[in-house]
Amino acid sequence: MTYVIIGASAAGAQAAEDLRKLDPDGDIRILTEEAGPPYSRCLISRYADGRLQERDLYFKTDHFAADHRIHYSSGVRVTSIRPGSNTVICDNGETVVYDKLLLATGSRPWLPAIPGCDLEGVCTFHSLKDAQAITAQTSPTQTVAIIGAGFAGLEAAYALARKRLKVTVVERCGQILPNQLDAQGATIIHRDLERMGVQIILNQSVAAINGSDRATGVMLAEKPQVQADFVIVATGTEPNKGLAAQAGLETARGIRVSNRLQTSAPHIFAAGDAIEIDDVSTGKRMPSATWFNAVLQGKYAAYNMAGRTRPYTGAVGIQNAVQFHQIPAISLGQVLVDSDSRENVEVVSLSEGDAIYKKLVLKDGRIVGMVFVGDIQKSGFYGALIRDQVDVSRFRHKLLDKDFSYAAVHRGPQFGQRSPYQ
Q1: How confident is the prediction for the chain on average, in pLDDT?
Q2: Fewer Cβ in 10 A, N or C end of the chain?
Q3: How many CB atoms lie within 10 A of CB 235?
Q4: What whole-number distance in Å separates Cα of residue 182 and Cα of residue 160?
Q5: DSSP string computed for 171-183
Q6: Positive or negative torsion for Cα 126, 128, 129, 132
Q7: Please, which residues bridge with residue 323 across strands?
Q8: Mean pLDDT of the region 126-142
Q9: N- to C-terminal Cα distance for the chain?
Q10: Same structural domain for residues 250 and 346?
């Protein structure tokens, strides 16, 4: 059996490793545009501020491919997929034949239609290449404008503030982290950023990036220009579904897959940031842009590609975990409660001073979302309650007690016993 994997990040690398365990004699090949061993995008801010070297970002060793007898082709871009002939075409002219194909093509930065995005000195904050570009052109006393106050934008803000740059973050919503945290949780991180000297401008859209050849700042819709030596655009990501769509596979916001992570072509599978999943917390189909999900999907995809059926269920698409300065934060599932949904959900929250905040969102007796800021202990436990859709209605008044644990809810193998290998 010949397995070909496009992409070598969390899903692709994990799938390759598990395929080797499942099929000791199979031919496994990885095709990736990136140079070098697989690395963690989650750590690029620590590279940008100097806390980590490039080698510290690798989550697989440089002999990973040799150890698992994987043909690893780096710096190779796949230009097309031909399901009818079970082949992929590469930019170096090579045609690669497969029996089973995995699309682990990840995601890419989403760039808004802002004039000036193509100027020199404008970059994104998504890859090691981005972090290297920022590191090469920044020095203390310089100024940077960051468009977007999501996780990527704030990780960049913290990293550059540590390097003593003057940082201004512009966010069109009324709070930072508008898609990840509620206002109370976001306020804790907002205050910490301001203590580090980061200026945050809320409720403002960027009308244009100024400059002729090189960026000189950003023009706001309702305020004067923010001057900057360079600009980081951190306005979100979108699934890399282009190859799949061109090949005639079913796509929507991302690549559509079954619960076996199989695309609309029977010999092609997909996993990681490029796909859509059925989110158990919201009941909606959505992109799955989290490291945890990507690794797990890589495992499940390997089993299904090797002919050992393993349905992938119980996934939560909205999941974010990060360490901002000294403040850990995690959000999972349906965390934002608007006026339309308030009648259908219940919120349990706890605050300790102005540094710790915890919130659980309940619907029909089950936890469907959580926000922990400042203290994320036991967040894995609550995450399991969400994924396993455990009825916690009888523990409503104890949910955030310090002694609330598995012992209180565990009543046999129905909870916390699932394994990706079962």
Answers
A1: 90
A2: C
A3: 21
A4: 25
A5: -SSSSSSTTTS-H
A6: positive
A7: 328
A8: 92
A9: 23
A10: no
Mean pLDDT of 97-117: 96
For residues 75 and 136, membership in a common domain is answered with: no
Mark which of 235, 259, 281 sits at the end of a domain. 235
Q: What is the pLDDT of residues 178-188, one digit of tens each?
A: 988 999 999 99
Active-site entry in 42, 90, 117, 173: 42
| Strands 237-239, 95-97: pairing kind | unpaired
- The domain of 343 spans 334-409
What is the mean predicted confidence (pLDDT) over 204-222? 94
**Whole-angstrom distance, CA of residue 258 vs CA of residue 251:** 12
Reply yes or no on whether 123 is catalytic: no
Q: How far is CA 182 from CA 7, 62, 400, in A?
A: 34, 41, 18
Q: What are the structure tokens assigned to 331, written together?
A: 């959000």
Return the beta strands (E) in 63-137 as ranges. Answer: 70-74, 78-82, 87-90, 95-97, 100-103, 107-109, 122-123
- Residue 126 sits in the same domain as residue 231: yes
Amino acid at the residue 343: E
State the helix-helix crossing angle for 183-195 and 151-162, rounded to 10 degrees.
20
Please give the C-alpha separations between residue 218 and each of 127, 207, 227, 399, in angstroms, as whole numbers.
23, 8, 7, 45
Count of domains forming the chain: 3
CA 218/CA 213 separation, integer angstroms: 14
pTM, entire model: 0.90
SS3 189: helix
Query: With 80 as the cut, is the pLDDT of residue 247 above it?
Result: yes
CA angle 132, 135, 140 (to 5 degrees): 175
Orientation of helix 10-22 relative to helix 291-305, angle to 10°: 30
